[in-house]
């Protein structure tokens, strides 16, 4: 006999790894909150490229099937486990990292360390755009790049979610910022967001133009498989290129690192230690309070169109910020 006391919710479920057509909205039981967990009534879920790698089955750590995609979210606390101390029902929160059942669902259980206060100044769509992009940008610039006030940074791919977050963080830390985008609208957005200069990475001469100017202490690289070879020629003495995004192999000339004693440094948010993650989240939450965390939303999708958002985040050219799924009002 069916248990009528189980409350149900709408959620995207992936039963087999593959294309976005594997993402179907189904009725599932609302998860039961664990001892140290927060059950969030999800209003908005942020779509990140990593969600598509996982859904396609092309990622190191894969969930057991079936699973619900989505790592970032914003919404209201619905209930908390007995050992939760920082949140209570009704709090406005954002979250990043979930368990097996993700945030493309009306309710998501998240471990307390991955839930953060959203405050009252940002919308839920904006809140869902914070987690992975801001934490990664902060890790790249400050924890891996060891950025110092007055240094010059090139954000190679600045018009997307991580890139725009990186501009805001870099400007807040007193860096001189040059960003790239692939369209006129992207360039305008990069400048409006605070970059001091912007170049179009689809212009065949842009690397030449960059080489004519002063070189960079830090490069935050979103597409290393295309750009890493050029990045090595764009660094100053003791420069650091931080590999954030990479979709394949690339040929470089290691000699370009020798004279400048510059470095290539990998960056992965999931590799942050608990202490590092705490620092990331503390600084970004402070940025919300101080008012410099201002997520830029490109497009908002319905839950039924979450598959379109997955396709767009990985295939579209001409990013203008973050893609978000509005799960419920
Ligand atoms: P996104 O919003 O889709 O943005 C992609 C960015 O890459 C856009 O600014 C895009 O610019 C730019 N781009 C396209 N072609 C480029 C080129 N030839 N040279 C330089 N930039 C180019 O994605 P995202 O969320 O910002 O993530 C960016 C990358 O970082 C993805 O590969 C993602 O998987 C990775 N990532 C890594 C971590 C980590 O922990 N390491 C965490 C988060 C994300 P236009 O569209 O204007 O051309």
SSE inventory with pairings:
Blueprint: E1 8-14, E2 23-29, E3 37-47, H1 49-55, E4 72-80, E5 92-96, E6 107-111, E7 115-117, H2 124-128, H3 131-144, E8 152-156, H4 161-172, E9 176-181, H5 184-192, E10 197-200, H6 206-212, E11 216-221, H7 224-234, E12 235-243, E13 263-266, H8 274-290, E14 297-302, H9 306-315, E15 322-326
Parallel strand pairs: 8-9, 8-11, 9-10, 11-12, 12-13, 14-15
Antiparallel strand pairs: 1-2, 3-4, 3-6, 3-15, 4-5, 5-7
Helix pairs in contact: 3-4, 3-8
Bound molecules: NADP nicotinamide-adenine-dinucleotide phosphate.
Write up this protein:
The longest helix is centred in the C-terminal third of the chain and has 17 residues, at 274-290. Helices cover 28% and strands 28% of the residues. Helix 3 (131-144) crosses helix 8. It starts with 7 loop residues before the first strand and ends with a strand. It has two domains: 8-130 and 295-326, Quinone Oxidoreductase, Chain A, domain 1 (Alpha-Beta Complex); 133-270, NAD(P)-binding Rossmann-like Domain (Rossmann fold). Strands 3, 4, 5, 6, 7, 14 and 15 form a seven-stranded mixed sheet that branches. It is globular and about 70 Å long. The chain has nine helices and 15 strands. A hairpin with an 8-residue loop joins strand 1 (8-14) and strand 2 (23-29). The protein has helices at 49-55, 124-128, 131-144, 161-172, 184-192, 206-212, 224-234, 274-290, 306-315; strands spanning 8-14, 23-29, 37-47, 72-80, 92-96, 107-111, 115-117, 152-156, 176-181, 197-200, 216-221, 235-243, 263-266, 297-302, 322-326. By secondary structure, the protein is of the alpha/beta class. It binds NADP nicotinamide-adenine-dinucleotide phosphate. NADP nicotinamide-adenine-dinucleotide phosphate (NAP) binds next to helix 1, helix 3, helix 4, strand 9 and helix 7.
